[in-house]
Each structure stands twice: as structure tokens, then as C-alpha cells.
């Protein structure tokens, strides 16, 4: 790790109009390091080793974050085995969703930190913590739908205690609230009717089952909707059930 004086000397060369390649060759410092110093001059403090965590104290935030992770989350190792990064991909059309995701990551991370990484059409909410795989034991190699996804007993206890937060996280990641329409003939005249509906779509049968099992415990009626021969879509369309979902989940925002 370079000290601040070394960083300042390298940045002074850049400020003289030198290219990053030129400064890198002269100083032996990588271009990526110099580029990162342009955003942050002070060295990032090293985190002291932390013991593996127990179940999170903020159970409702964890239940919501678990739903987000199962839909659009991943965990990756940090450089040189320094820890792990949790990344939740969010569509940047929904700034309220991004803010809720960031708040949940901050609530669960012991460092209470998270940051956003903008990409084309989406924002990744990223949090650093050495023990994310302990908090999300569903982490593993390959795609989620290609491996078994089962909740640990302590995770299931949290979901049972905070089911709506879990459903909300799943809908915010892989679900939506839409307006469907149909036509009926009334007194010889065809009329158009519109009605709201919730969809949840995920290729993993295990994740769909976690969603529908939770809906069952909440008393929400659901049906499978087959698309192209695949039952990837779970629909909630009955008026009373949509009203219940509206009260606890609502559309993305």
C-alpha cells in the first residue's frame, strides 16, 4: 500500500499533463492505482479480522435483502482474498428501489457502508464484508437455477417472522405489478375491462417455490402462467389478493 506522499507525487505528474502510461512507466505504479487515487487520495484502512457472524439483528431488513439477493444478487471475492463483495443489480428506472436496497445493505453490513456502481441501464448496490457467504449460504459456483437453493433453518425463521419483506424483495428483483385487460360482451356491446396483476418470474424452481410457499403462508392465492412451455411465471390476480399485495408490496418506484 502506497503512502499519501507517494500518491501525491504520482498525481502531481498527472496534473502536469502526463499520460497515465507515462507516469506508470516512470514510477512503477499501475495505471489503475493512479486512476483510483484521483477519486480517493487517502489509503483505505485495512479491516481487522472479524469472526463469522450470527443471524442478523435487523431481521426485517435481512428478509428483504434475502429476496433481492435470490433474484438479482451475487457474491464475489475481493482482491487477494481480502473479503467478499455483495452486489445487487437494480434497474435505474426505479430510484426508490435502489435507495431501499442500499438501506438494506447498510443495515446488514457491520461496516454500515454501501456504494452504487452505475452501468448502462442499471445500478449495482455494492457492500463489502468478509462474511457475506455466511449470511447468504445460497452463494456458490454457477447460476442459481443450476444448483439447489434451500434456506437454512435460521433463514427460514426470519422469513416466517417477516414474510412480507421477503415477498417484497423478490418482487422488487424479479417481479412486477402490471395492468391486464380483457373484453366482455355486456347487453350486446363488447366492453374493455382492466385489472391489476402481480407477476414473479424466475428460472429457478427452488426460488419460485420459496416465493409460493411464502404466499401460501400469507393466504395469497397464486397460479402458474406458462410462457413458451415453461412455468417460470407466478401470477397473483384475484382482486382480494392483489389488494393484499398492494398493501404490503406495491409497484416498483
How many angstroms separate the termini? Answer: 42 Å
Strand fraction equals 15-25%
Count of β-strands: 8
Shape: elongated
* Arithmetic mean of pLDDT: 90
The gyration radius over C-alpha positions equals: 23 Å
* Strand order across the largest sheet: 1-2-4-3
Q: List unreliable stretches of 5+ residues.
A: none
Biggest sheet layout: 4 strands, antiparallel
What is the helix content?
Answer: 40-55%
Give the SSE order as H and E letters.
HHHHEEHEEHHHEEHEEH
Structural class: alpha+beta
Helix tally equals 10
Structural account:
It contains ten helices and eight strands. Helices cover 41% and strands 25% of the residues. It has a domain at 4-37. A hairpin with a 2-residue loop joins strand 7 and strand 8. It starts with a helix and ends in a 5-residue tail after the last helix. The strands form two sheets. A four-stranded antiparallel sheet has the order 1-2-4-3. The chain has a four-stranded antiparallel sheet with strand order 5-6-8-7.
Amino acid at each position: 500500500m502506497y503512502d499519501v506522499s507517494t500518491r501525491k507525487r504520482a498525481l502531481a505528474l498527472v496534473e502536469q499533463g502526463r499520460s497515465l502510461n507515462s507516469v506508470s512507466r516512470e514510477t512503477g505504479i499501475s495505471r489503475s492505482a493512479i486512476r483510483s487515487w484521483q477519486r480517493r487520495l487517502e489509503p483505505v484502512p485495512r479491516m481487522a479480522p472479524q469472526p463469522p457472524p450470527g443471524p442478523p439483528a435487523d431481521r426485517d431488513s435481512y428478509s428483504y435483502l434475502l429476496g433481492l439477493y435470490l433474484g438479482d444478487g451475487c457474491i464475489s471475492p475481493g482482491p487477494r482474498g481480502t473479503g467478499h463483495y455483495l452486489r445487487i443489480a437494480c434497474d435505474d428506472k426505479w430510484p426508490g428501489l435502489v435507495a431501499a436496497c442500499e438501506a438494506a445493505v447498510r443495515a446488514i453490513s457491520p461496516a454500515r457502508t454501501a456504494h452504487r456502481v452505475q452501468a448502462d441501464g442499471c445500478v449495482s448496490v455494492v457492500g463489502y464484508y468478509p462474511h457475506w457467504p455466511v449470511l447468504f449460504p445460497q452463494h456458490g459456483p454457477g447460476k442459481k437455477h443450476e444448483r439447489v437453493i434451500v434456506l437454512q433453518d435460521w433463514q427460514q425463521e426470519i422469513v416466517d417472522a417477516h414474510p412480507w419483506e421477503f415477498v417484497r424483495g423478490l418482487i422488487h428483483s424479479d417481479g412486477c405489478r402490471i395492468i391486464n385487460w380483457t373484453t366482455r360482451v355486456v347487453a350486446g356491446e363488447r366492453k374493455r375491462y382492466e385489472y391489476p396483476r402481480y407477476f414473479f418470474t424466475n428460472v429457478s424452481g427452488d426460488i419460485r417455490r420459496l416465493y409460493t410457499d411464502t404466499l401460501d403462508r400469507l393466504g395469497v392465492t397464486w397460479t402458474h402462467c406458462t410462457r413458451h412451455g415453461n412455468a417460470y411465471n407466478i401470477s397473483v390476480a384475484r382482486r382480494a389478493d392483489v389488494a393484499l399485495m398492494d398493501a404490503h408490496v406495491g409497484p416498483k418506484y
